[in-house]
Amino acid sequence: RKKAKPDFESLVLLPPLPGCPAGALLALGSGSKPNRETAVLIALDVQGLPAGSTVCDVDVWGDYVLAACLDGPKGTPGPLYVINQKKRAVVSTIKPKEELGYTYAQHLHDACWYVPGKGDQREVYIILTAWNPGGIAAIRLTNVP
């Protein structure tokens, strides 16, 4: 089995290109043997994010993906998008700088879900960091299913 595997050694993140409007990942084989001279192009799916959003990282909680963005559309401050994986759609957009008044939240990254408690005692938070100028925030969510 090991001799037959393609043995991909590196990944390259590619910008948008024809047929891949959200960019792509290029996986390259090691080239150490003929069956390892393979490359695979994997188109990325933006899950309905507005054009121009620059996703930095994502975190998953159940059916929901939290996508922290360095920038929003047209260079606006980075938003947080909550994506429902089953619906394959953005179900919420949180703009910490523009809507919540958190002036340090220009470029968002390292956002994650924090869900303490169970049942009626469960609370849902988003923890994030921002840079330029920089800061840390915790956002408590309400009316969470």
Summarize it.
With about 140 residues, this protein is an all-beta fold. The chain has strands at about 10-15, 25-30, 40-45, 55-60, 65-70, 80-85, 90-95, 105-115, 125-130, 135-140.
Order of strands, widest sheet: 4-5-6-7
The chain-level structural class is mainly beta
Low-confidence stretches: none
Secondary-structure element order, N to C: EEEEEEEEEE
Total beta strands = 10
User: How is the main sheet built?
Assistant: 4 strands, antiparallel
Q: Give the overall pLDDT as a whole number.
A: 86
Q: Distance between termini?
A: 44 Å
Principal-axis shape equals: globular
User: How much helical structure, as a percent, in the residues?
Assistant: under 10%
The number of helical runs is: 0
**Percentage of residues in DSSP E strands:** over 45%
Q: Rg to the nearest angstrom? A: 19 Å
Write the layout of secondary structure elements.
Blueprint: E1 8-14, E2 24-29, E3 39-43, E4 54-61, E5 64-71, E6 80-84, E7 89-94, E8 107-114, E9 124-131, E10 135-141
